[in-house]
Amino acid sequence: xxxxxxxxxxxxxxxxxVDVALIAEHAFVRAGDPFRVGLHMKMKRGWHTYWKQxxxxxxxxxxxxxxxxxxxxxxxxxxxxxxxxxxELMSYGYEHEVLLAVVITPxxxxxxxxxxxxxxxxxxxxxxVCLSGSARLEIALPVGSAPxxxxxxxxxxxxxxxxLPRAPRGWSFAATAGPRAIELSxxxxxxxxxxxxxxxxxxxxxxxxxxxxxxERAGERYRxxxxxxENAAEPPKRITGVLVLAGVPRSEGNALAVNVxxxxxxxxxxxxxxxxxWPTGPLYAIVGVLLGLALAVVLRRRAARR
Length: 306
What we know:
By secondary structure, the chain is mainly beta. Helix content is about 10%, strand content about 45%. A hairpin with an 8-residue loop joins strand 17 and strand 18. The termini are far apart. The model is unreliable at about 1-10 and about 275-305 (pLDDT under 50).
């Protein structure tokens, strides 16, 4: 079988606020060779969608695949998220645009000249209000026998891969957890000198998302502290998520994202001052509360003198 002509078709849909398209990285597929498809989401200004752990509010993308016989779909490849403050809440998600890719594995033998990859995609889009979005999308891909070559959307997939958290090769992590603070201590590889950091915890009831995180350097290591979740029954037995560092150059952007998986030990940590590298809206609300309490104390003292 000769290599087919590149497939230019893609399915599009979306809502008034979010345009979506199902796209493929390669121009055609070959039996037994995994390939990527992805949902490309473009949000209107001010709108956002959500990461796999949306923080204080939101829902992640859900996919119900309809694949040819023998084809299987892997998990969503989630790029490092952004922090999206809304009032006193902190959500984790994406603004502007994002490509959420998935690896599709075909069987060792394909009897047809083309295959159709389809799915139902459900998401939540938010600005001042939150609305549900849904689209049934499909894309037809020709089948070839030669090694697959890049398609028209290959650049988008390359950009999405550059935003994926890296494996922690060359990193050293240690964690402690107590009633007042959760600490992540880490030593990055040589040449990595961050100016700030933020841990996107991917578990529920571990940390207060809207609370500022502390960041400081301690010799060759760095210390990041989080406020425990108010409703947590006990300190977490495992800390997982994505650590995003500020001030670390890379080919795309000015941050470095690395996967974190650490088991807390003893002793329980104490909080440190929040880093100024990651200002957030809720921080100003906290400062306002503290100033209000200080003013109340002054007024009470004046009243007592009278």
